[in-house]
What does this fold into?
Amino acid sequence: MTSVLWLRRDLRLRDHPALHEAAKRGPVAALFVLDQRLLAPAGDPRLAFLYRTLRALDGQLREHGGRLLVRRGNPVVEVPKAAREAAAESVHVSADFGPYGRQRDEAVEQALGDIALVRTGSPYAVAPGRVRKQDGTPFKVYTPFYRAWEQHGWRAPASVIAGRVEWHAELAGVDIPDEPSLPAGLALPEPGEDAALAAWRAYRKAALAAYAEVRNRPDLDRTSHMSVYLKWGCVHPRTLLADLGPDDEVFRREIAWREFYASVLYDWPESARSYFQPALAKMTYAPADTKAFRAWQEGRTGYPIVDAGMRQLLAQGWMHNRVRMIVASFLVKDLHIEWQHGARHFMQHLVDADLASNQHGWQWTAGTGTDASPYYRIFNPITQGLKFDPDGDYVRRFVPELRGVAGKAAHEPWDLGDDRAADYPERIVDHALERTVALDRYNAVRG
It folds into this structure.
């Protein structure tokens, strides 16, 4: 019997449990639905990468005698419609644990009627909801979650069967959309599963061994950049985990952070928009429609490490994780603007934007989330820059006004007197003063 493989965040053919399950039953029609609910919040870089990835997947399928069926509209309408056109007995998916995805899948399941919706696997090594405390309640703190997650373990990658699948390729669909225009010079990663696996092999060979030592150094750029491939499921996290050894504990912990945040969002779906620590919602905050917020968005705050990060975001659709924390702290605790505004800006511009990781990463830095950094831990943008970009190379890479400033002086250009870069903006706030303001506001609501 024919099955439909409804693809979402699993745009690959290898290590794909839902594909394995569908292929057991007969011919498989591969479907992707362009859902406006998910496309509308995405910025142009993320859409461009998605469309390129869909084209890469379609190319893979055609090599095996299939094709990617693309439909546009509400999945509650389009998935049952495609299933009935294919005379399918079942629709197969990787389970979605996000707030919208769960509701959407339940609605699709109802609309399918006597056609089964079969959930097999997920975008995670361990599905959200499986790792629990001994009393059955969810974890709110990362470290005990990590211990339980590692003890729970995960399956080995599934065997490759793409070449042995009988593909159903007769249904009509729509073309994959043309890419939106991207800013001049913005280069996206190579799309698709083959590119993801090649990038992982290259990283393992060249840089994985030094990850623990250099992961916080944006000037060295030695992180894996696998987040964008994990976002769209071009590679499954257990594929990466299977390649890690005992000396790769720090990298394994970073994968676990992704799974922890997915689990938190699963158990507290409101945390995508609301404060996990509700008391801090009562603090006094500045409005987002201000010159200061726009200066932060454009990378013109006068603090070089902050500006370099925000300009990297605009130039590459990506930002180093250490710098993500620095710019987030600056927005919330120096400019006193609520974390949701920054999180929304990231979701619009990051190619790897993932709702769970993005929102809870912001809440961690803002001191409002689960397992949060204490609110009084306020990143000093100058000392952070000097520590993690000690020679100023990262700043000079993304802030051209400071390329004439040698060494670590790029982090404090205001100390150069007449030699400072005249076209680089003045600091929009005094960090020491705003730190005091932030702590006063925190103490006012802490009790």
Remarks:
- The radius of gyration is 23 Å.
- The chain has three domains: 3-122, 124-156+192-267, 278-446.
- The longest strand covers residues 28-34.
- The mean pLDDT is 95.
